[in-house]
Write a structure and sequence with these properties.
Number of strands: 9
Order of helices and strands: EHEHEHEHHEHEHHEEEHHHHHH
Structural class: alpha/beta
Shape: globular
Largest sheet: 9 strands, mixed
Mean pLDDT: 91
Bound molecules: iron/sulfur cluster
Length: 386
């Protein structure tokens, strides 16, 4: 079960890579000080009392160096014991060293990294040499016992090679997490790489079929999350819940934002950790009001949609990207969400209808009958039993 309270720590916006569809700044960008981490601890002591996950994100968080993590991790872990902090990191792994890996392993920090499929496809959209550098870091992380999962960004260009990309993840035994390339609030040509919503919907249904076909060979995280949403009738990842008030990102200077995706844009600053703001202070900021405005907008715009409980209008950042600072629609990926949620619901209903009552009730492996091909109910059983 994921913690609903999520703090993203952005030690720097700098990144040594220059992925073509990303907005990170130059490598020399300022780095968060340990003083700021101490203020994060002091601020959170009296902010919320539930379990928290800290994700180190960027830019490229490894640019902060081994010393930063050697100090930051015990400060957060011991200083906020009552929130039972868990940690994660999203990194391209280029700057992973045995020294940093050892520090992260001590706190069991799971790593999310990014490759977009085979070397040629990855390098064509992330830059020459990206794949080799990430794989080098992966070997170091693995040697230290860290768990590494890869996010695969599908762009409107790479989606044409979806078979090759899926086979690459399958053959290498990598868990697959799909990320659709999105229009950015910061890009001059926001749609250059973006995956169109209809293409994204097709891709999700394709991955659902692939995940079912190879159920015991590969885990497709998005498909698991989407099935969980439909089955439990509530969102289980940030895109499908009201993230406002549950997720915050802290930039290198201690500024607080609604999410890492807004970091570095002054108009989305909600406060600063040095001021120890209350939840009320943050939500009363202009950015806070904008986020709450999205929630109200969804209540009205999506009220007729059968998926509203476990979709919640999708991601507010995506919704605002086409109209910066204004809310004039829900997440443009609505088309894709309706498609995949509809597909999972239809399949689940058909499977339930065709399953004897005893088997539905038990929710365990059926001793009576095996469907010819695994369906979403079989996938749900396998997720629950893991
Ligand atoms: S703005 Fe979007 S990406 Fe950020 S926490 Fe909310 S749903 Fe997630
Ligand atoms: S699928 Fe579309 S209409 Fe339905 S809740 Fe999600 S964003 Fe709203």
């Amino acid at each position: 079960m994921k913690n609903p309270f999520h703090i993203m720590l952005i030690p720097t916006l700098g990144c040594p890579s220059k992925c073509k569809y990303c907005w990170s700044s130059e490598e020399g960008s300022p780095i968060m000080s340990i003083e700021t981490i101490k203020e994060v601890v002091a601020w959170l002591k009296n902010f919320r009392s539930d379990r928290v996950t800290f994700t180190f994100h960027g830019g490229e968080p490894l640019l902060a160096g081994a010393d930063f993590y050697r100090q930051a991790l015990p400060l957060l872990s011991d200083g906020l014991k009552e929130l039972t902090p868990e940690f994660a990191m999203q990194t391209n792994l280029w700057r992973m060293t045995p020294e940093i890996a050892e520090v992260l392993a001590k706190y069991q920090v799971p790593i999310g990294s990014s490759i977009d499929g085979p070397e040629a496809i990855t390098d064509s959209q992330r830059g020459d040499g990206y794949f080799a550098k990430t794989m080098r870091g992966y070997e170091i992380a693995k040697a230290a016992g860290l768990s590494v999962r890869f996010i695969c960004t599908f762009t409107n260009k790479s989606v044409k090679f979806r078979d090759e990309i899926f086979d690459f993840f399958l053959k290498n035994g990598f868990t697959l997490k799909l990320h659709p390339a999105l229009p950015s609030l910061r890009s001059e040509n926001p749609k250059e790489w973006a995956l169109e919503p209809a293409e994204y919907g097709d891709l999700l249904v394709y991955l659902l079929d692939k995940a079912l076909e190879h159920m015991n060979e590969i885990e497709v995280m998005n498909i698991n999350d989407l099935c969980r949403c439909v089955f439990t009738r509530r969102g289980t990842v940030c895109t499908y819940v009201d993230c406002m008030g549950n997720t915050f990102a802290i930039g290198p200077d201690g500024s607080i934002y609604p999410c890492y995706r807004f970091v570095g844009m002054p108009e989305y600053v909600m406060g600063n950790v040095y001021d120890h703001p209350s939840m009320g202070d943050l939500m009363q900021s202009e950015a806070g009001k904008l986020m709450s405005g999205f929630k109200e907008f969804v209540d009205s715009a999506c009220k007729e949609c059968s998926h509203i409980k476990y979709c919640r209008g999708g991601c507010p950042y995506n919704a605002m990207a086409p109209t910066p600072g204004r809310i004039e629609g829900v997440d443009p990926h609505c088309v894709a969400y309706k498609r995949i949620f509809g597909e999972i619901n239809d399949r689940m209903n058909k499977e339930m209808f065709n399953t004897p009552m005893m088997e539905i009730g038990s929710f365990g492996p059926s001793a009576h009958r095996k469907p010819s091909k695994p369906g979403v109910m079989t996938l749900m059983r396998s997720i629950v039993s893991r």
